[in-house]
Write the structure tokens for this entry.
Amino acid sequence: MPADIHGRLGAQSLAAATDTTLYTCPASRKATVTVSLCNRSATATTVRLAMPDGALGTLANEDYLEYDVELPGNGTLERDRITVAAGHTLIVRSAAATVTAVAFGIEEDA
């Protein structure tokens, strides 16, 4: 039985206009996650956050938690208390290659 994991669960420096897996919850585990999106540029951009039922594939409308939300220059967007079941993923996307995405929280046995 693995120990609970507290802290950073995933991090990515996003490429422009590319869906990117930020975190996948392992089998037999569950997680409560906060996602932070940080714009490292002075120019505003847009970001997306999705949670499909499984791995990255074709995203459906119902998978999005945030869609083309404006992230101000040098700004941050945080979405907290996202519960992620085993095998589910968090997918992030930015219109610009200036955004860092970090997932942090707790992962524990399901």
In short: The radius of gyration is 14 Å. The CA atoms of residues 45 and 71 lie 5 Å apart. The chain has a mean pLDDT of 95. DSSP finds no helices and eight strands in the chain.
